[in-house]
From TrEMBL:
It comes from the Eukaryota. The chain crosses the membrane at residues 28-49. This is Uncharacterized protein. Pfam families: DUF707. Residues 83-104 are annotated as: Disordered. Keywords: Membrane, Transmembrane, Transmembrane helix.
Amino acid sequence: MYCQKILIRMGIFSRSSISRKPNETMRLFVTTFIGVAFGFLIGVSFPTLSLTKLNISSSLLPTIDLSYIDHRTLGLSFSSMRNRTGSTRPPDLNETTQIWAPSNPRGAERLPPGIVAAESDFYLRRLWGLPNEDLTSTPQYLVTFTVGYDQRKNIDACVKKFSENFTILLFHYDGRVSEWDEFEWSKRAIHVSARKQTKWWYAKRFLHPDIVARYDYIFIWDEDLGVEHFNAEEYIKLVKKHGLEISQPGLEPNKGLTWQMTKRRGDREVHKVTEEKPGWCTDPYLPPCAAYDNHSCFACLGSCVLPDLIFEFEMLTELRFWWMQNDLVHGWGLDFALRKCVEPAHEKIGVVDSQWIVHQTVPSLGNQGESQNGKAPWHGVRERCKKEWTMFQTRLANAEKAYFRAMEVESNSTTH
């Protein structure tokens, strides 16, 4: 009896649902059609309508960034206008909502100036907490070393000559990075690795003026320098004291080949001029008798950096060296052009004698070359260095001629 009642009730349910099905199906169909049509109309009108113009209450759209949608619409119209006119200046159609700040860096003109950060740094930050609590200190100086792991003990000795007021940046030309963690200081250093590259290659690509602008001085060193008689903080004091804008530590005169100008003198703090072999200097105030720091080590104060092996410089203005050639990676010949960065050069370029170093001339970078025609790898590297020197001299001379020629043409056009 119980089962019969269940079957009867199921039968009644089935019959009643079948009887109501046509009406419900029609109602569902009509509702769906109206919804689709309404959505289609809204979608078609969306590119030309702003949600703010629809006067929809913000409480109904709590998660939509209306200003973002408006600016996307404005961006489309600006792009189309630029395509028609060829101008990079936005149209003066809606100056209250359109942003165009020509003082911003190139490519950021449409951002509000208050959100633009044109400069950065190498300060390491945390992944947690508040950003304004990340930095317990902000080093004033940056020191970089172009290194191979075989010279780790020498680099360890060098790093200990730089206080905690220096950010440490290592450029690895041999690809060995993790092994350096045997030194405690390496764990707080920044490591960049690219096999068989020179420090000029790294500098051009990782020391952009906007990245290093926060630092007062930058030391860019090689790996084969003896620093027993060198202290970075004392060196900076002497550079400031004597008004040197380009300088280098004195070189131990009995170690390796070097110009007279760069050899250490034991009776003074700094020297700016010297005497070379007869006939070598056509002008006592020109290289290599003055206004010269050679490519074994040098420092630049005041934005010009052009050596081969070492340099330090103060960030007074943008780094002019950064704008040099991309393909000349060894830097040979640049030292003779230092005088073009300061005026008068024979007064602002000098050698710091009381803070001196030893250039050990370890041919580690030369060994990164390739053996050709049965010659040792360093032969090819040395040949490339010599070729770059000639190429740089030719390019600089041609660039100067082209500049003065253009200035002469411009001057003549304005006077006629």
